[in-house]
From TrEMBL, chain A:
Entry's transmembrane regions: 117-140, 160-186, 215-236, 270-288, 295-311, 341-358, 370-390
Pfam families listed in its UniProt record: PIG-U
Database matches in PANTHER family: GPI TRANSAMIDASE COMPONENT PIG-U, PHOSPHATIDYLINOSITOL GLYCAN ANCHOR BIOSYNTHESIS CLASS U PROTEIN
Organism whose genome encodes this protein: Mycena chlorophos (Agaric fungus)
Keywords for the protein's UniProt record, in alphabetical order: Endoplasmic reticulum, GPI-anchor biosynthesis, Membrane, Transmembrane, Transmembrane helix
Official protein name in the record: PIG-U-domain-containing protein
Membrane topology, from the record: Multi-pass membrane protein
Compartments in which it is found: Endoplasmic reticulum membrane
Pathway: Glycolipid biosynthesis; glycosylphosphatidylinositol-anchor biosynthesis
UniProt keyword Chloroplast present: no
From TrEMBL, chain B:
Pfam families: Gaa1
Protein name: Gaa1-domain-containing protein
Keyword match Transmembrane: yes
Domain of life: Eukaryota
Segments traversing the membrane: 25-48, 396-415, 452-473, 485-502, 570-591, 597-622
Gene3D superfamilies, per the entry: Zn peptidases
Record bears the keyword Endoplasmic reticulum: no
Alphabetical UniProt keywords: Membrane, Transmembrane, Transmembrane helix
Xref: InterPro entries: Gaa1
Amino acid sequence: MHVDDLTLPALVGGRVAVALATDLYQQLKYNHQLASPLTSYLNLQEGVFLFKNGVDPYFGGVFRHSPLFLALFTTLIPTSRTICSLLWTLSDAVGAWALVQIWRARQRAPQTSRDGLVAAAYLLNPYLFLPTFALSTCTFENTLTLLSVMFAAQGSVSPALLSAALLLQLSLSSILLTAPLILLLANSTGPVSQLASPHAFASNGRKVLPLVAEYVAYVAILSLASTLVSGSWAWIPQTWGANITLPDLTPNVGVWWYFFTEMFDHFRPFFLMVFSVHLLIYVAPVCIKFQYDPLYAAFVLQGVLGTFKAYPTMADIGLFLSMFAVFPELFTYLRHPIVTIFLHLHAALLMPLFHHLWLSQGTANANFFYATTLVFACANGAALTDCVWAGMRIAIGQPQDGYSVVQE
Amino acid sequence: MNRIRALLRPDGDQNLARIQRRKRIVSALTTRVHLIKWSLFAVGYLWMLALPSQRLGRGTYIDENALQPGQVNTYWNWGDVANADRYLEQLERIRDANETILARAHILATEFMKLGIPASTQSYRFSSSSGIVEGTNAYAVLSSPRASGTEAMVISASWISRLGEGDGSLNLRGVATVLALARFLKTYSLWAKDIVFIISDGYMDGMQAWLSSYHGLPQSNLEAEELELPSGVIWTALNIDYPGHSFSHLGIFHEGINGRLPNQDLLNSFSYISRWTGGVPVLMYDHIETPRFEIPAWIPQSFHDEIRNYDYRSKNVVRHIGYQARGRGSGVHGLFHQFRIDAFTLFGVPATGPHGFYAIGRIMESTLRTTNNLLERLHASIFFYILTAPDRFLKIGSFLPSAILISVGMMFAGLKVWSDAAWIRVAVAEIEEKEKTGNGARTQWAQRRRPVIPVLGIMLSTHILGFLMFAVMRTPWFINNPTTSSTILFTICTAIPLTALFTPNQTQNPQTTAPTSVLLKALNLCFASTVISITTVVNFSLAMVLTIFLAVPLCVSAPSPILPLRIGQYGVYIVLALGWLCATEEVRSALWDWQVLGVWFAPFVCVVYTPLVLQAAIVCLLPV
């Protein structure tokens, strides 16, 4: 057995040991950077309790998780802390495994020497393991994202579309990823890197329609199942609707909450529309530009989601950063990696600090924390624009003396 | 019109113009990085020197309208002063009879109960590596006659005065003031908040035990009785320290542990009341405004005031930095801030006159009436300030940039080293050599690899070394044998990085791979810059001290080709990194502060500061 085969199990074992041995949940459960109102474990417990006692959890505006979580946690899984810690860690393990599979599919190799590194990039990323310790349900969103990308990369149509539909149940904004996923399934070149040789979309456009139809069917079935579980349609405005109407202004690492605390009520609908449409705007250009490599388009859109979605957590951008491991061909073409890294370091240190100064120590105020979320957004924006640049720059080839590349 | 258009859009290739423009800007900046860096340093350090100047900063003002300081009639009178004198006589008897700590606390609690105020005592015991500290606090809770007691104000006095930083002088008049105030305040029904009277034992330890129990925060090395009397959320606390026979001025001590400061409104209200209600001049600390030197005659008369002012204020600023940078509270009040309680100490500067119980009683009464007015916590963000004089302060915007500029300079320096590491001049290959017509050996720039992993490994191991060093320092062995243990620690920490000398000289070709020392220097500078700019908002004084100790030394670290010189450089950095081990007394008190009060200074120095300087030392040792 090769040493690299042992890396993933060893890392998972380490993570399980830490999850069981420490009680980080107690220290992290109220942390706004790790869990948003849509993913917080505390809210999930509240909803499960209400549901078990015959009260509609979607009445009252606390519970915003999918009804599928209700079904899962009231029947199959008891809400014991140890079992939950294990379940969340295993979900991360599945995510890491899926990332390794994506990497292998992209390299078209059954096994590579970098497999362990790719797994480590996922399992040792603090942006990812801290939300897991806080039992934030965004861990499951990440795992489902990776699973659907993995199935799409391997060409398994139905599993890919089903996990994408499941992902949509958990988070409405993930609808951005469906476009590159479907392109990846319809693509004839597969997940192999095409960045160095751009060409028009290599497939028959007619393949797309049945894929979309299948996806819509899955979404419809799952929505119906959700309605059956919760007993009414009330879950739709409370879960999906929250992504658009932003009812809960609890601080998080995104750029929405502060903007809407300062907003006059009569401008609110307009700016909600602007912010939501702003997210959608990216889909078409990114998918058109990277039509020859839809996997890369999915990666870029994940970065857009982590930076601009309505209720982001550290985990959303953490997934984007960990996915860099799958695209090593980028590294030499990044323009300012060290600047991005230090921006991230500043943001990652300042955010908990200002959060503490504002909410525990009481000497600062909301503006401080918001300012650091802006630093964080800048760091994410720097990473995002840099990988868009690098993704397109690869096609031009190695830099040569006396020539320089300019963007028109 | 056409001419304007031509100016805006010149002919020729737009993209070419853009590339050239960008190249011009980039090269203009990169060739001047050293100039930019040193001028940022110069501006930053000059700014720091200018902090005490009267031209920076502004007069204090009351931000919170609800406070209304000095707007009430005070009723404290000579009868109450006589009561205070009776209490003082009793306390002197206790002192002279050499009562046990427990008996003393019970007598104090009984005095409160005689007034009809529920009172109790609390015994505690701290164990730290330097020994055990025991004591008993006495406290009383006067329930608010007007409200439900969800909020409270604290009036406290520690048994030991801060005179000489708690070296043992007793705070008898402070305690007497608290007792007499309890008697006096009970007769009025205007209190909207509970009033908690605390006579804490010892200097800092008693109040730490009381506050930990009050807020239900268990501390592993503290055994304390539970408090029997509950009260509400404490908003403000006034700590009285009156060690002398009389006082001439009242001094403000406001720095809390870990660099926390109370809301400035509280201090400003007190200054205002003291000056206009009590008629007592206010000082920063115990700094009486006396000229420290003769101003030479050749300086024009018009500058004399400014120089005197600068001298006086710089004394205040330096004292402030001394407390804040070490995270050491300047008195018992410092323990309150961690629980979001605004607190400060009124210090009666010992003198033969003219003020005494009469003045301090009136000032306390009026200040309590002011804090009693609060409807919400003091919240406006005037938590970030430097008081240069009792009536002048620096806003955050007028001191923060000084340290930030230096940190930016360090970041530039680090990025410059990093980007330079990627390039090397190599001789052009033979074939091209023949084609050239020019003179001398032609060279061209070639790119090389910058492996980061070994550098990060070195950085991580220095931080682990710092952590291990701190673990050793927490043991009783270290405290009990300060000289031997410091020497051993110093030797070990000096010896371990020396292994860098024996790293093979040419593991990788410098033509294709950047040397480790250069990369280490780059990341060390960038990381130190990050640490400094983040520390500025939590503890500006600490960040300022860091800029002084780190900025220039880290920038000039470079390996020298001559071995003895290399060792010499290394020695200088080692002294900078570990020299503090010689200050045994300082180390001892920093460790006590960490173990008993939770002051972060000692672990910060061991785990962050020392490793950063050690990294610079290793830069000097590594092969060129």
